[in-house]
Specification:
Elements: H1 2-11, H2 16-27, E1 42-44, H3 58-61, E2 70-76, E3 79-85, H4 87-99, E4 110-111, E5 114-119, H5 120-132, E6 136-138, E7 145-150, E8 154-155, H6 159-169, E9 173-177, E10 180-184, H7 186-198, E11 205-210, H8 216-224, E12 232-236, E13 241-246, H9 251-264, E14 270-275, H10 281-294, E15 304-308, E16 313-318, H11 321-337, E17 343-348, H12 354-365, E18 379-384, E19 422-426, E20 433-443, E21 449-453, E22 458-463, H13 465-478, E23 484-495, H14 504-510, E24 514-517, E25 531-536, H15 544-552, E26 557-561, E27 564-568, E28 573-592, E29 595-617, E30 622-635, E31 646-659, E32 664-680, E33 695-715, H16 718-733
Helix pairs in contact: 1-2, 5-6, 10-11
Biased composition (Polar residues): 393-423
Signal peptide: 1-19
Domain NolW-like: 207-261, 345-484
């Protein structure tokens, strides 16, 4: 249950009891040795491979129905139970399931769940592996039995929440770590999570921040809620310092934020990170600070407000619970009141070229304000800030109106507040204020403009903040490192002897290998010259060398080339090994004063082994390969003219689809040769007329087939390139 306390802490104000719980978790979350993990790992992915990181569209494409709270009526251990799940949790489940590879089923589909005294590990297998087809690992041997039944069908997106509650009843925790659900005890999951972060060597650095004031344990709890994803913080009480593990680009802003919190005194205050739903955090923070500056309020009653743009939240520090609660309510009202003010904002890009995405975004979002004139002039709705989970300050205390911030006041008249005016009540002991907000929110329509800034690699967005958030979510989902494909190609020429009369594909099938032409859905029909075959072997990993060894046992195999190519997604890579042969393309003759001038136009053509590959990576880690393979040679023409050579070539042009790490075989280009070999007695065979008596000419017929084996490997992170490089070196060093 410690993991749940962290999530509650991030969305609610920090209470002293929660600090103790959080410190307990931080204290046991250090990196421990392998002896700390009890039990044997059990892996159940139910998939051939674990997909790499692609575009995470779960949060961007989630339908609006996914944000509606869902109630589950169930019977657990013969006791009726009502489970209420907020829309945010269902949306979070959808994002986690997408990361865990659960894309086989529609998450909105309704299913029924029923178990009667079944083993816990069986329940996990049926829910995660069966109903969701998600990747998961049970770090511990799960003990216990489960009786659970839903009274009515529930969406698949609700299953992770139900399973977490079932596991919690037996003392287990489920958490998504690096795209895999990890299930085990709280201590085991804490070790796995920290070791997963620590294992990303080269991508994270350690930074120690010494604190001049405040307690490291208290400040660590605050910093943990605003750190970038993947970063960790560990307090060291003996030296009153914080140990940060985070990306190098985040070191400077995070350390500056920590020092600012210490200097402002927030380290010794009650602190909460309050999300801002509709407006810009900087704008809301400015309005609140302006309001408190205009009031005759003691400095101790003024909270510390820091906008967190990346987290879309405000960091609020206060001396008392009541001041913190007042600030929370005021933020809620200002958040709704200022949401539709259009402004110019900037979205920095890390990987995408701004010019490429700006036109697409303008085409999608630019029309949102176009139809504003056709809509009703004013549609409004009323929003009321409600703090039902907080205790009432004093039921008998009287009201005391105070001026509202200028940003939410009306200019209708002196002393007359707008419908967004906020009324405040005095507190019980300290005289602070508790605002209640009743806001009428106008709905406006404004056009959107998105301009690329190529110099700073950023997008300039002019829109309301609600529209800006939507655009930013889409950009963040698309702004990923450009994936690459490492292509291992082996080009061989096979002599078709007696055992290979019908070609390589027929021979491999006869030897028991499953070789099928144009296997759908993995291999597409080639649509060009040559044939396409893909082979699957039922045991272990396999490479192109496996097929080569099988062929070398029955015939002569000549490896023409074995290149490794690395190419960006959607770009073309071309390998040419051979010569450039000049040939005549055009000849003109001009006669002037009895003199004829001949002009030749010469072009150069590549001859030899030429391989051109254009990959296109799909979301499921399969690769569409557009392949142009040529093996050619030049021979002098019969008339002896070197400028008009004869080009002999064998080509394969094909479009295929293959999974990352799998090998496809392209073949079927069979060439018949009729070579005449003349042998004779030296000198005597050259004598005119009589020489034919001392030599003989034999005709040798042969058939060869050009075979190309290609293995693409999708690379989405730099570390994967290093792993493939080590794999290649290992193969080269193997005799």
């Amino acid at each position: 249950m410690l993991c749940k306390s962290v999530s509650r802490y991030r969305s609610r104000l920090l209470r002293p009891a929660m600090i103790a719980v959080l410190l307990l978790q931080v204290g046991c979350s250090g990196v421990q040795g392998p002896d700390a993990i009890v039990g044997e790992p059990w892996l159940a992915s139910y998939r051939d491979d674990v997909r790499g990181k692609g575009i995470d569209t779960a949060n961007v494409n989630l339908p609006s129905s996914g944000k509606v709270p869902v109630g589950v009526v169930a019977v657990i251990d013969n006791e009726p139970t009502n489970i209420s799940l907020p829309g945010e949790e269902i949306q979070r489940n959808a994002g986690e399931l997408a990361s865990a590879g659960a894309s086989k089923y529609d998450l909105s589909e309704q299913v029924e769940i029923s178990f009667d005294n079944d083993p816990l590990d069986y329940v996990v297998k049926q829910l995660l592996g069966g109903l969701l087809a998600a990747n998961y690992v049970t770090a511990d041997k799960l003990e216990g039995r489960v009786s659970f039944k839903t009274e009515q069908p529930v969406p698949r997106a609700v299953i992770p929440s139900i399973l977490r509650d079932i596991l919690a009843r037996h003392g287990y925790v489920m958490k998504l770590i690096n795209g895999v659900y990890q299930i085990g005890s709280g201590e085991t999951i804490a070790v796995l999570e920290n070791n997963a972060v620590a294992g990303a060597s080269g991508e994270y650095v350690n930074q120690i921040v010494n604190l001049k004031r405040g307690k490291a344990e208290d400040l660590a709890a605050v910093v943990a809620s605003i750190l970038p994803r993947g970063a960790t913080v560990t307090p060291v009480a003996s030296t009153n310092s914080l140990v940060l593990r985070l990306s190098p680009v985040d070191v400077k802003p995070v350390t500056e934020l920590i020092r600012a919190l210490v200097d402002s005194g927030a380290a010794s205050s009650l602190v909460a990170v309050i999300p801002v739903r509709e407006s810009s955090p900087e704008k809301v923070a400015g309005a609140i600070n302006a309001y408190y500056s205009s009031q005759d309020i003691a400095a101790a009653e003024v909270p510390l407000i820091i906008p967190l743009e990346d987290q879309q939240a405000l960091l609020v520090g206060a001396k008392t619970q009541r001041i913190l609660r007042n600030a929370r309510t005021l933020i809620s009202g200002l958040d709704k009141d200022n949401r539709d003010a259009p402004s110019l904002r900037v979205i920095p890009l890390q990987h995408l070229p701004p010019a490429d995405i700006a036109n697409q975004l303008n085409a999608i979002f630019g029309g949102e304000g176009a139809g504003a004139g056709n809509r009703p002039a004013d549609t409004s709705r009323t929003a009321r800030a409600d703090n039902r989970d907080e205790t009432t300050t004093d039921a008998n205390s009287g009201g005391d109106s105070v001026p509202t911030p200028s940003i939410i006041r009306s200019s209708t008249g002196r002393g007359q507040a707008s419908p967004t005016a906020a009324s405040f009540e005095q507190g019980r002991n300290d005289g602070s204020f508790a605002p209640k907000v009743d806001a009428t929110i106008p709905q406006t329509d404004t056009g959107i403009s998105i301009v690329p800034d190529t110099r700073n690699n950023a997008l300039l967005v002019y829109a309301t903040f609600r529209q800006f958030k939507r655009i930013r979510d889409v950009v963040r989902a698309l702004d990923l490192p450009l994936a690459q494909v490492v292509i291992e190609a082996t080009i061989v020429e096979v002599d078709l002897t007696d055992g290979l009369d019908y070609g390589v594909q027929a021979y491999l099938r006869g030897e028991g290998l499953d070789v099928r032409s144009s296997r759908s859905p993995f291999i597409a029909d080639p649509g060009g010259a040559g044939g396409v075959a893909s082979f699957d072997i039922d045991f272990g990993d396999y490479t192109a060398s496996f097929v080569l060894h099988a062929l070398q046992a029955v015939t002569n195999v000549k490896v023409i080339s074995s290149p490794y190519l690395t190419v960006l997604d959607g770009r073309s890579a071309r390998l040419s090994v051979g010569d450039q042969v000049p040939y005549l393309t055009k000849q003109t003759a001009a006669t002037n004063t009895g003199t004829t001038t001949t002009t030749n136009e010469i072009e150069v053509r590549d001859v030899g082994i030429i391989l051109q590959v254009t990959p296109s990576i799909r979301a499921d880690n399969s690769v569409v390969l557009t392949i142009q393979q040529e093996v050619s040679s030049a021979k002098t023409a019969a008339n002896g003219d070197e400028l008009t050579p004869i080009i002999q070539q064998r080509t394969i042009n094909s479009d295929i689809v293959v999974n990352s790490g799998k090998t496809v075989l392209l073949g079927g280009l069979i060439q018949d040769r009729d070579d005449k070999v003349t042998t004779g007695v030296p000198v005597l065979s050259s004598v005119p007329l009589m020489g034919n008596l001392f030599k003989q000419t034999n005709s040798k017929k042969s058939r060869t087939e050009l075979v190309v084996m290609i293995t693409p490997r999708v690379v989405r992170r730099p570390s994967q390139i290093q792993n493939i490089t080590r794999l290649i070196k290992a193969r080269l060093s193997t005799p």
